Amino acid sequence: MDIRSQISMVFHLDKCIGCHTCSIACKNIWTDRKGAEYMWWNNVETKPGTGYPTKWEDQDIYKGGWKPAKNGAIKLRGAGKRQLLNIFSNPNLPTIDDYYEPFTYKYLDLIESPEGEVQPTARPVSLITGKPIDIKMGPNWDDDLSGTPDFARQDSNLKALSPAQSQAMFQLEKMALYYLPRICNHCLNPACVASCPSGAIYKRGEDGIVLINQDVCRAWRMCVGACPYKKSYYNWNTGKSEKCILCYPRVEAGLAPACMHSCVGRIRYLGVVLYDAEKILQTASGEEQNLVDTHLDIIVDPNSPEIIRAAKSNGIADSTLRAAQNSPAYKFVKQWRLALPLHPEFRTLPMLFYVPPLLPVMASVAAKDNDPKSLNPIAKIWDDTRVYDTSMDKVFGTIDEARFPLKYLASLFSAGDEAQVKIRLKKLMAVRIYRRHLTVGDIQANQATQALDEVGLTAKDADAIYYLTSLAQFDDRFVIPASHREQALEMLEFTGDVKGCTGFGTKEHPGRGP
Amino acid sequence: MMTSLHSFLFIALPYLTMGVFLVGTFYRYKVQSFKVSSLSSQFLENEKLFWGSTAFHVGMMAVLCLHLIAFLFPRTLLAWNSYPIRLILLEVTGFVFALSFLAGLILLFVRRIYVPRIRVVTQWTDLLIEVLLLFQITLGCVIAVLYRWGSSWFASDLSPYLWSLVRLNPDLQTIIAMPEIVQAHVVGAFLILLVFPFTRLIHSLVAPLHYLWRPYQQVIWLWDRKRVRDTRKKWSEHLPKNT
To answer: A221 and B43 in contact by Cβ < 8 A?
Structure first.
């Protein structure tokens, strides 16, 4: 047993309102620089949709992540030692057009144009060449546009659905969408680290944050293609790859990362989990149908005396252990088993978990398809019986007859295993039924208990889930042990910074080299 | 006849080149390590790069290898060349790679000038090194056509001159007897090495061969807690590991 600690995250998708505040907070702090304009270390996608970069989930295109190899091992899909032969031109590298060409507007033209017949306009110009461009794409171009042929219907996860199912998803009255905020998953078996020929990318032992050493990166670009989540970005100006650093200077000081701190919907939770590093390879190379279970099994119980002893002998501090015991991530992921990893089939063992969204599933459409419609002459609206059915007549009835195919959610969160998604949605529903019984009172006590029993939750669990979901204060959502600087002295060699500096640990001005 | 120009070009220049190369490379690697990068532009333009970069790099590596073999193992090469069929095979192979080198470079040069996105990431050192290389490869190809069996006369005549430089006892006898075009090719090589550390060519020295022997995953512990806790040691001994 080799117990290590890892900063883990949980995003509660039901609470995400798609406001992009997280993206902006991150952009303002980290990627507001030349060459990094197109990067969104944190981005929010609308699902169904193609995402950013376009179709990042389709590994037939980008060849990211790991795939099973012979005799139970795994190998990098499009990277690895053999790919050194392709170092002169990496066939799996997305180009800037797969993301979008960053742009700004010539705002000064609005003020400085001479008087004329027509109003002056602010033309869009490329932030790369400075020349006028026609904007074709943006980082959130498919925002809320679920259903347009260019985006939602190109979603890679629709491959898992039958044509009839995916057609049904896009019928106007059935249409549903939800948001998927994404940052680097700080994986346990990171493909970016494994693919880096220079050895510039590493996982920090103390907290599991995956970082790129900017002084060692030599722009061999393998990590960009190898990360199946496309969360390693190439800075075309400095010739270095960059990625989410989980705001480690903040985390070391016990503060929440900027995206999490600024989250309006309070969907984000951050805490320590303990895991058994000896099981990483075995877990990553497991059978696809068991991936979710084995993935969760690698996370161990921080309250067990045996684990505590093993953790201490590995040098994990008491404050870290305490944080692990109060960790909201542990509660959501392991204790209540409400959260799921994103695309576990990429086998990188991501440490960012999502509570799957109940809202697009919950409301079913009551009307039958052949119902006559009539236009109300006064209100000018269509009178029909198409209403969202949120009734609780049949416990879990709406999950079983969901308008949003569970297959779709399973393709995202559980490597296609619908049962894993279903039980989690049922748990979320059971907590709602229980709370409705307590607050509104139109549901009988026995019905509420029956719902909880069926998913294996107690009233105490339901109260705790309700508290952490709806009422949790800042310190409940973020339980971060500060790093022990009194022992570490300096976690990086140079603390001196220079103006315009990209990062830490270097005194050199981060310019483009000759 | 040996002139002062000859002594400058074939004695002073090579030693100056080696000095600047060593000091410059050390400086770039140690002081400016952030700026040591292959500066790949594949992210901005992919299609032309595939043909240009692959042809350029493969041709370059083969041609460079042949030159190094002629320099380092002249006798072996002469022995190999003693059969005409082997000599012709070697020369033809070398020439094909040289053409690939030239074609790749021309394509990359054209791409650099005509693709607007690549122009944005072009520095004057890029143009300098590309012009120097273009000059050098063209000369090399012309020499290969005009003065045949270069692999043999390189090994027998040029290699002794280069070795005399290494032995710090320059002997210009053979080099000044060479045609001027060959002399220009040698001077071109010195010039390229002279500017090498200050151009993007520096990335060839950090070619990631160590990746082949490395385990895939890398975990770095920033401090060794057991040593840090040892009060008998000075604090300055507990430096972080990832230096």
So the answer is: yes
